[in-house]
Write a structure and sequence with these properties.
The chain has 125 residues and is of the alpha+beta class. It folds into two domains: 64 residues, 2-Layer Sandwich (Ribosomal Protein S8, Chain: A, domain 1); 55 residues, Dna Ligase, domain 1. It is 32% helix and 30% strand. The protein is globular and about 50 Å long.
Length: 125
């Protein structure tokens, strides 16, 4: 896990706490896949990418979801927390969203259970 991803997650959390509706960032493929998960789970309202002065940007519309305020980064570059499938079933998600990086890419905890893979826990909301 890179510091760039942690910086992105902290930026999302701070923008949500400051009640910002729209956030602009330089486009990154890793961030786009995280945004896709956040959109599917209903944590952000929408996102898209576009070119502005030969620079590709991402426009993120946060909406009124307060769940990003409680975003917690679990794994850090110095300490990675990995879960196998058996440990993943012990996590009761309920209203929480757990995001993992697996051999199949970024997945939520529920998707990882369905596909029967474990991975490194990135963050939870």
């Amino acid at each position: 896990m890179k510091n760039k991803l942690i910086d992105f997650l902290i930026t999302l959390k701070n923008a949500s706490r400051a009640n910002k509706r729209v956030l602009y960032r330089n486009f990154d493929k890793v961030e786009a896949s995280i945004l896709q998960i956040l959109y599917k789970e209903g944590l952000i309202q929408s996102y898209n990418s576009f070119y502005s002065d030969r620079v590709k940007l991402s426009k993120i519309i946060l909406g009124s979801s307060y769940k990003l305020n409680f975003l917690k980064i679990i794994s850090k570059p110095t300490k990675k927390i990995s879960l196998n499938l058996k440990d993943l079933y012990k996590i009761k998600e309920g209203k929480r969203v757990v995001v993992l990086t697996t051999s199949l890419g970024f997945l939520t905890g529920m998707e990882a259970k369905r596909k029967k893979v474990g991975g490194i826990v990135l963050f939870m909301c």
